[in-house]
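Good morning C.,

I know you're traveling, so I'll keep this short. The sequence:
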Amino acid sequence: MSLSTLASLSATTPLSRSGRVARPSDLGSRSAHLKFFFGRIGVSRSRRLSPGTLSVKCVASDREVKSDGPVSDDVAGEGISGALPTHDSQSIASSIKYHAEFTPSFSPERFELPKAYVATAESVRDALIINWNATYDYYDKMNAKQAYYLSMEFLQGRALLNAIGNLDLTGTYADALKRLGHNLESVARQEPDAALGNGGLGRLASCFLDSLATLNYPAWGYGLRYKHGLFRQTITKDGQEEVAESWLEMGNPWEIVRHDISYPVKFYGKVVLGSDGKKHWIGGENIVAVAYDVPIPGYKTKSTINLRLWSTKVPAQDFDLHAFNSGDHAKAYEAQANAEKICYILYPGDDSVEGKILRLKQQYTLCSASLQDIIARFERRSGSSVNWEEFPNKVAVQMNDTHPTLCIPELMRVLVDLKGLSWEEAWKITQRTVAYTNHTVLPEALEKWSLELMEKLLPRHVEIIEKIDEEFIQKIVSEYGEADLEILQQKLTEMRILDNFDYPASVVELFKSKYEAIVKAKQEELKKQKEELKKQKALLKEKAAKQKVPVKSMEIPAEATDAAKVAETAEATETVEASEVAEDAEKEISEPDPDEEEEDLVAEEPPSFKPDPKLPKMVRMANLCVVGGHAVNGVAEIHSEIVKDEVFNDFYKLWPEKFQNKTNGVTPRRWIRFCNPYLSDIITKWTGSEDWVLNTEKLAELRKFSDNEDLQTEWKIAKRKNKMKVVSLIQERTGYVVSPDAMFDIQVKRIHEYKRQLLNILGIVYRYKKMKEMTAEERKTAFVPRVCIFGGKAFATYVQAKRIVKFITDVGATVNHDPDIGDLLKVVFVPDYNVSVAELLIPASELSQHISTAGMEASGTSNMKFSMNGCILIGTLDGANVEIREEVGEDNFFLFGARAHEIAGLRKERAEGKFVPDPRFEEVKKFVRSGVFGKQSYDELLGSLEGNEGYGRGDYFLVGKDFPEYIECQEKVDEAYRDQKASIT
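The tokens, ready to paste straight into the viewer:
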């Protein structure tokens, strides 16, 4: 099955907007695929060119670009010249020796591994700088449209092997280092992972840059240079613990500091109206953002693009020398500390006001410094005559999630306040320039910021956001009209950028006047009803009087013997019959009492236009992204549909043309070619060339060899070699010894309740319990040996996620030391999961778990990486799983679980107390609570799976609902694994 999986996955990444395979070599091999993200690469609209063609002469005087796609390698090669002058191992060894001596980071006495790594990296960087300079000299001459990808994360991993692989110099560098007494792999292991990201958001960003460079697109990435990253994860008896990353302690040979490229960034202060009639943001706290550049090489192309990272500081004069000499050292260093801490940590905890301020400072620093740089580059390329109308034709800004949302008000501020454009001109330019990638359907993950906090930190931006919001309100009013004020008010409440904020005076007046008109019309109607009712009552009385029955026609009761009694009975009968007639007549009058309705109307309050003082005023960043940009994309077919149907449904109805799908992609260079050389060699041998690295449609050629026993044998050998690497990794990191003959079952990703690592570990516990209930022989017959591997970080303040990590490690400590079980089941949590660990685990994987609650995972990209390496997936129909399953075939995907369209109903069923848990689910919880995994209480963890609703309860992610189908699906996995031949073919 694993071989046919890879063959079927001939184009796993990227997938086209329809979800079908486009071209997996990169995020977009066709210009149409990237058009959504970055707009047109050039300005010519007269004709469409095939991807990779460019109608320009490569001369400095030709400033105009006429392109509609990436710069082709052939054309780019005319202008981009570079790389090392010679590529033989002797000259490379000389370059390494040169850097060891003349670019020293270590003492000169010894040439040990750390020194060898730095010198090697610096020699590679020489080639990258040559190509980098040539690339941007070429694009400057062309004046090409440039794409700028802004992201708070870039999860790069190690750079050495990737760089020399893309330069096609891996073998040459291996020989050069051998001449110097070192092994390339040992040298490469000295490199720490760059601590610039955490999860899929950051890894996706790095894959994009690799692909953009490989496809010769003019593009840059912008991020922050975090000194300590997110954190380094350690696992102790108490579970996850966090310590600061130290990746920069020995320097970073890949970065080039640009001391001449720095920009001021301002916080706080106030806004004043100048004598020129313009708004000016003055005073406050000032810092400086300094550029650090990291070259990003394309694969077998001279194109080398750039990741520009910002580091923050203040000028030396801001150091308070007087305070320092007076002994107040903290005060002396305060300004510098405030500036530097902006780039200390990725995602600092935001439970405190100080944490929130720091996060917002980070986001604004990224946006402000990057836009200043982008604008400066545009102005420089424009020469003496800057035409701001051309800005969107030369610049495309892609916001990776909502973190860079402040690009929108910041670009408006620069254009209006500093460049002198009108509001209307600036708004058109901004909307045409900016686009937004959504990465989540979780409401709590759609960023909101306190308006009060933002007003203090960024007062001018709040004014701009308020005006954008006011204009958007007018758009909503014009779209939905004034006929139904209830619907209009609902749309305003849901779609506004500012939440729980005052309405503009014009809207208040509209609602007030409409309400008064409604009241007046209602009063007129009630007045008419009163008149009509009076007439009805008069007619009623007249009708009742006419229909009284005469006394003589009445039957006299036998007991009425005297005249008085006769008269009394007759009178009573007349009254009763008249009353009955009146009652019948009143039944014909159906109108309600107008007097009561008028009282209700007077008592009714008009709609409230004031914010709720009990709730905070907030800025909805995702709404601002949708309003302020020209395009919004989801990152998988199912996710994009949820974005349109649920997350931003009202916006989709308003602007359907803005919403598109771009299923995520990953680079096959790093994720097959470099991290899995054993499999890569097999693919190259059997397909006849290395063309598959750039055109992975070529992988389909493996299908015709699927029954070939030689290929099957080579495939098994490659998989075992990769598994042996992981055996060593696990022993080194955890001390556990695992068998390479067991199935390697892997779930590695950020720890989160919706990703359902809890479902996985409860399934393992159930498996363990059943093993314990059997004899040794029964166990061997019933179960396939497994090594269940977990990895991922729980955010430092995410208590429930950290409980899950603790539970996994507790289960592992019990199972792994149980002599009855032995190698039949092992549970391993690999600490400090990162790109380098992934590069070992993914090639060794045989089963990978992508089991999020359906409809909650935007895409996932590790599922693509596992599939690309011939691994079978078990998962739900969520994110990119849907499209992967279509490509690899249903037989190569173990499917279980509720579907996305069922989730809301299942949660409602649970909330109403109608859910009946499967006995096996209750059994496994009882087993956990029995104390078999130690003295730790798991009540709070398991309590989240119980009850019907409530914060932290009610099993919001439907673990209990999917549990029985999950364990049944795992039985099918065992059955398939036993038949190795079938699983290969």
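Safe travels,
E.
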